[in-house]
């Protein structure tokens, strides 16, 4: 499906722009004279603004549809990516990094669009695959941006200028994708929202019957998923930021070797997140929504235990193996979370996606403060995070309380009977 592929490719480009500056930070640090505390603030800023952006764009998707919402985000988000090279101080760089963080709202639009484009029996797989292949952009960025930087150095630019010009590349890519997404996708299988409103006189009345933000916020299931996504995607962003430093400091590797290992963590999204959605759909077809919830809880539990084990391993081959092990369940937890989201409130998918997506960034911000602490080592911080993730896996079982409604199977039965006939 054209929309599916354009959605994940666009999300990939968004991740490329969002984290494009991350592998160039050693050069930026030297150029701007940044301290460890300032770098920590920059990392937190890059994910904190996304909390509010995801809430905003989740609401916009319900109002104007994903196609125009994505176009607005891509065109506006491309500007700080291209112009971050104008920074000449810590304060200006921090503001640009904060603005770039808005691009993280692309996740909510991606999940919204795939949720409305696919049927309930495969929506988890579609959501997880699109998000996973898009998240892979974070791993590719660690490899490609240093090459782009090196190309500018090879053309004769000094390091202080090369990193600035290198950031123009992902910015231009985002700008181009804004037009591609507008002209080559549609809001729903039936067409764009604007056309549907013109064709159906009752469409506006039907749209107004959707849930309000307040009613969505009153649903405890939304906040349970908020915590769950903070415990998986929030930790993924955190590991992306600290993995290279962790292996350099604890295993005395060079920057190149540590970067390759860190890249493996991000590249696992090519299949791991999709597996979470596939397992979620299989459990949903057999056991209903409760099956999807149990799968999510189990994945979170193993992720937490793996993080605790990873923090204690001091032999490099075993550390890599354990990292890939907990990364598998972490990314499957991401996919499993959004195999549940479309069934929580079908009249407010955008708002639910936005709140749950914001939870991922809240988790990243909280974890970032642990790693910024001068009194905690990276190993101790990872262990604490592992304990918290195990706790969240237990809380996620709240979703299986009586309020859970089996919405997928009854809706599928008439269609399945016709197919069989």
Automatic annotation (TrEMBL):
Keywords: Membrane, Nitrate assimilation, Transmembrane, Transmembrane helix. It is a multi-pass membrane protein. Residues 3-405 form the Major facilitator superfamily (MFS) profile domain. It comes from the Bacteria. SUPFAM superfamilies: MFS general substrate transporter. InterPro entries: MFS (IPR011701), MFS_dom (IPR020846), MFS_trans_sf (IPR036259), NO3_transporter (IPR044772). GO terms for cellular component: membrane. It is found in: Membrane. One of its GO terms (biological process) is nitrate assimilation. The keyword NAD does not apply. One of its GO terms (molecular function) is nitrate transmembrane transporter activity. It holds the Pfam family MFS_1. The chain crosses the membrane at residues 7-27, 39-61, 68-87, 93-112, 133-157, 163-184, 222-248, 260-281, 293-312, 318-341, 348-370, 382-401. Belongs to the major facilitator superfamily. Nitrate/nitrite porter (TC 2.A.1.8) family. This is MFS transporter.
